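Standup notes, structure subgroup. Blocker cleared on the FE3-S4 cluster input:
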Amino acid sequence: MATVEVDQDLCVGDEICAAMEPEIFEMRDDGLAYVVDGQEEVDGDMVAAAREAADACPVDAIIVEE
Ligand code: F3S
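Run returned:
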């Protein structure tokens, strides 16, 4: 179990996260990434997936806390 957040003050809309893990991240009309509604907490394989997306984000806007 982990909590996933996107810091929209840091996000520059690179879209890597949403392309890699569309079940966790979505792009909204403001061009920034958000955690898909209701999925701030992820489990199992999704924890590793969220970490990979966090590592791939060029501005470290994704926070994964276990
Ligand atoms: Fe933003 Fe990083 Fe995703 S810049 S769109 S959180 S890859």
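Discussed briefly. The domain at 2-65 is CATH 3.30.70.20 (Alpha-Beta Plaits).
Next: hand off to the docking folks.
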